[in-house]
Amino acid sequence: MSPNVHPLLDGSVSIVASVVAAGGVPPVDPAALPLTAGGLVVAGAFVGGGLMIIGGIVALAYRSGDERVDRVADALDGDLPTPTDAPVREGADVPSAANLHEVAEREDGDPVYVPVIRIPLATADPGRDGVYRHAARAAAALHDEFEDAHVRGYDVEFGLDDGSLGGVGRTVKRVAVTPEIAARLRDRDYDHRDLREDVADGDDGDPGVPPVDWGDAVSYATGDGSAATAGAAATTAAT
Question: Where does the record place the region Disordered (predicted)?
Answer without folding.
Answer: 196-220
